[in-house]
Amino acid sequence: MREPLVVAVAQPVCVAFDVAANADTHAATVRSAAARVVVFPELSLTGYELDAPAITLDDPRLTPIVEACAQTGTMALVGAPLQGEAGRSHIATLAIDGSGIRVAYRKVWLDSTEDRFSPGEPAVLTVDGWRLGLAICRDTGIPQHDADLAALGIDGYLAGTVMFPEEAEIQDARAVRIATEHQVYVAIASFAGATGSGYTRTAGRSGIWTPAAAVLAQATPEPGSLARATLQ
Q1: Which strands form 185-190's sheet, in the order they lie side by side?
Q2: pTM score of the predicted model
Q3: What are 9-46's pLDDT values in tens digits?
Q4: Containing domain of residue 143, as a range?
Q5: What CATH number has the domain bearing residue 92?
Q6: What single DSSP character describes residue 140?
Q7: What's the total number of domains in the chain?
Q8: d(CA 185, CA 197)
Q9: Measured between alpha carbons, how far is 129 from 86 in angstroms, rounded to an integer?
């Protein structure tokens, strides 16, 4: 029998471009979340700053997150601009735990403003027997994306996003559609507070939904808020 999985969706305060400061905040969030998996918003390590320098997996500024995950037994799914091969860069989700850092996912469906980045492919992360499909922001609005993940066999759908406050209802509607169409848990970590590229305000309201689209937990619109739920 698979054990229940405690998941948290976080919307930490972010300092634009300051990876070291944001990594410290991520580490503190991991320690306080009391969750096996903590999901962070899109580009959470830099803010949604599309000209932020890409980082590498051996960046020492990420060490505090590794240490926090080692202490708590957490898998942190962190948003970052990633330096890839052959000079390419990606909007990525990094999987960080006590053993280190690896690339979990590279955003597939890029916005027109994200043309410096290259797309990735659908990806599934397995944690304690749970198969978790991964997404970043625009992916959540592309039915082909969640269909491609469902075809890989998933129990949950985890995403990091950046949305305007007036898009909060759109974000909720996407979660409901994905949950009901594919009968999976959905967890979305949505940026809260100001960030780059015109986002003077963002939606927050990160949430976790059941396969029947019931809200298990939802954060407030404020930076620093967190929601946590147990997937059964």
Answers
A1: 124-127, 130-136, 156-161, 185-190, 207-209, 215-218
A2: 0.97
A3: 999 999 999 999 999 999 999 999 999 999 999 999 99
A4: 5-231
A5: 3.60.110.10
A6: G
A7: 1
A8: 30
A9: 34
